């Protein structure tokens, strides 16, 4: 292991950092001027994925790992929103991942390609939980934008909620919809509703 060339791994780590400034473009249609970054979305999606997977009895670590990588291809394709996909394909996630990992050590290349392939296949409990986490994160973000006055974000809230499949994801979504974005803070401060 010590003699493996990690040049391409280091290149990818630089590349991954571009997701911190890559904006989720669909929110522009809701009027959001400075939407969340792809990296911000992926972080909370990973947290949600571990929660849903745990509640569903799936492998939480593997599910969170999948969520970390689910939009990594957007370093090369950008975030293509649903309207944009009508006119231009964002690229095949597995093909982009293969290109991103081509020069990496085989053990890493194989692992990354496998996790992306599993997510894209939508067949394992972990992949289903990770995909639900992606939808639940979008729903949460939409509710946060609505609280900031972006009423058009309701479309994203409704569409995301409708696409959640797991029982735990649906129950979490319903609980979230019954709350306001700062209810957690009131609770943490011991304030009464």
Plain-language structure description:
There is one protein chain. This protein is an all-alpha fold and 193 residues long. Helices cover 63% and strands 0% of the residues. It is globular.
List keywords for this structure.
globular, single chain, 193 residues, mainly alpha, 11 helices
Share in helix:
55-70%
The total of beta strands comes to 0
Number of helices: 11
Gross morphology is globular
Q: What is the H-and-E element order?
A: HHHHHHHHHHH
What class would the helix/strand composition place it in? mainly alpha
Beta content: under 5%
Q: How far is it from the N-terminal to the C-terminal residue, by CA? A: 56 Å
Low-confidence stretches: none
Mean pLDDT: 95
Question: What's the gyration radius in Å?
Answer: 18 Å
Q: Outline the biggest β-sheet.
A: none
Oligomer: single chain
Topology:
Layout: H1 7-17, H2 38-56, H3 60-69, H4 74-77, H5 82-85, H6 93-101, H7 106-121, H8 125-147, H9 154-162, H10 167-177, H11 183-188
Brief overview:
Helices cover 63% and strands 0% of the residues. It has 193 residues and is mainly alpha-helical.
């Amino acid at each position: 292991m010590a003699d493996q060339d990690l040049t391409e791994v280091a290149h990818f780590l630089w590349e991954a950092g571009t997701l911190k400034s890559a904006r989720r473009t669909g929110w522009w249609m809701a009027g959001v001027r400075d939407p969340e970054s792809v990296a911000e979305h992926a972080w909370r999606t990973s947290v949600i994925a571990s929660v849903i997977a745990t509640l569903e009895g799936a492998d939480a670590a593997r599910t969170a790992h999948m969520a970390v990588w689910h939009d990594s291809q957007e370093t090369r394709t950008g975030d293509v929103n649903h309207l944009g996909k009508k006119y231009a394909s964002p690229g095949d996630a597995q093909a982009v991942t293969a290109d991103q990992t081509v020069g990496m050590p085989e053990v890493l290349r194989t692992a990354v390609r496998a996790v992306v392939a599993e997510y894209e296949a939508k067949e394992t409990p972990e992949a289903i939980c990770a995909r639900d986490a992606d939808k639940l994160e979008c729903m949460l973000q939409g509710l946060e934008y609505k609280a900031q006055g972006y009423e058009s974000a309701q479309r994203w809230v409704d569409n995301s909620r409708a696409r959640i499949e797991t029982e735990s994801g649906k129950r979490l979504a319903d609980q979230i919809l019954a709350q306001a974005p700062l209810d957690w803070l009131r609770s943490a401060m011991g304030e009464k509703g």
